[in-house]
């Protein structure tokens, strides 16, 4: 799967992709993969009042650039936060439109047991649109009551540092415990121990096409 040349990251909201697989994104890009990132909501309604309403779009552009994603490979949609399920058909049609353009070998998307309603919608519509691709579900442990960690991507120090740096671009999210460098590193260390490496990210193997 790490030989995938064209990779698509599906993020219900800006920052989900970086949180779930930011280190793997950095590693894949360094190995020569072309990585596309689609964010479906910029959560304008949730932006703190002292920031401009489009602040999260500004931040996702900065964060993905740090990971190495080209600006033209970032897709930002404006679906309303917490209401993606009301637009699931439109989202599915958008994914189907992107499928022949991106032609991904590997798709990262929320894990199947993610309980957030927006994450669940992107998981379900991503599964429908990309059922002929390898699919890895990323973990956001505050949304996962259970998580099947049966696939691991080992990371080097520079990969986890790029993930930390990318998430530091989200000034609107400062103070959230899962955004701290210590949490991000600790989780990578735990997943590394589980697979016999120093650092890693864990995934649910939803589908593998060899």
Tell me what the structure shows.
40% of the residues lie in helices and 20% in strands. Helix 2 (55-67) links the parallel strand 2 and strand 3. The mean pLDDT is 96. The chain has a seven-stranded mixed beta sheet with strand order 3-2-1-4-5-7-6, with helices on both faces. Helix 2 packs antiparallel against helix 5. The chain is an alpha/beta fold and 210 residues long. The protein is built from six helices and seven strands; from the N terminus they run E-H-E-H-E-H-E-H-E-E-H-H-E. The protein has helices spanning 16-30, 55-67, 88-102, 117-129, 157-168, 181-195, and strands at residues 6-13, 34-41, 74-76, 106-110, 134-138, 151-155, 199-207. It is globular and about 40 Å long. It has one domain (6-207): 3-Layer(aba) Sandwich (Rossmann fold).
Properties at a glance:
6 helices; 210 residues; alpha/beta; single chain; 7-stranded mixed beta sheet; Rossmann fold
List the helices and strands and how they pair.
Elements: E1 6-13, H1 16-30, E2 34-41, H2 55-67, E3 74-76, H3 88-102, E4 106-110, H4 117-129, E5 134-138, E6 151-155, H5 157-168, H6 181-195, E7 199-207
Parallel strand pairs: 1-2, 1-4, 2-3, 4-5
Antiparallel strand pairs: 5-7, 6-7
Helix pairs in contact: 1-5, 2-5, 3-4, 5-6
Percent of residues in beta strands: 15-25%
The low-confidence runs, each spanning 5 or more residues with pLDDT under 50, are none
Largest sheet: 7 strands, mixed
Q: What is the H-and-E element order?
A: EHEHEHEHEEHHE
Total tally of structural domains:
1
**CATH class (first level) name:** Alpha Beta
How many β-strand runs?
A: 7
Radius of gyration of CA atoms, rounded to a whole number: 16 Å
- What is the overall number of helices? 6
How far do the termini sit from each other?
8 Å
Mind telling me which CATH architecture this is? 3-Layer(aba) Sandwich
Q: Structural class of the secondary elements?
A: alpha/beta
CATH homologous superfamily title: LmbE-like
Rough outline: globular
CATH topology: Rossmann fold
Average pLDDT score = 96
Helix content: 25-40%
